[in-house]
Specification:
Blueprint (H helix, E strand, L loop, with lengths): L2 E2 L13 H11 L7 H19 L4 H8 L3 H11 L2 E2 H20 L3
Antiparallel strand pairs: 1-2
């Protein structure tokens, strides 16, 4: 199961090397280098995504692999915007459906 780093992202974070991930983040930040806090958060998100991939999306197994509690893993996933890609796509479809529905009611 792949996990996207940001909602609406098509790139699976765990498929990138940390160097590639840093380069993408720098480009997104107009070339500004990452602070230590930003780098640690990026590395944490990357490692969590890797653990989820290694465990085929099993969050309980991933939390054991990482040596953290399951609730802590869920909180960190939420903090870093790590969502299963299938969930991200379902959310987009719901939003698009709601937009089309509200547009259809406007006369």
């Amino acid at each position: 199961m792949a996990y996207a780093h940001r909602p609406n992202s098509e790139v699976a974070i765990e498929s990138l090397s940390l160097a590639e991930l840093e380069a993408r983040t720098r480009r997104a930040n107009a070339g500004r280098p990452l602070s230590l806090r930003e780098w640690v958060a990026l590395a944490e998100a990357w490692r969590i995504a890797q653990a989820l991939r290694e465990t085929s999306g099993n969050r309980s197994a991933a939390s054991r692999l990482l040596g953290i509690g399951r609730r802590t893993l869920y909180a960190k996933m939420d903090k870093h915007g790590l969502n299963p890609i299938w969930l991200t796509h379902a959310s987009e479809k719901e939003q698009n459906g709601a937009e089309h529905e509200s547009a259809a009611h406007i006369d």
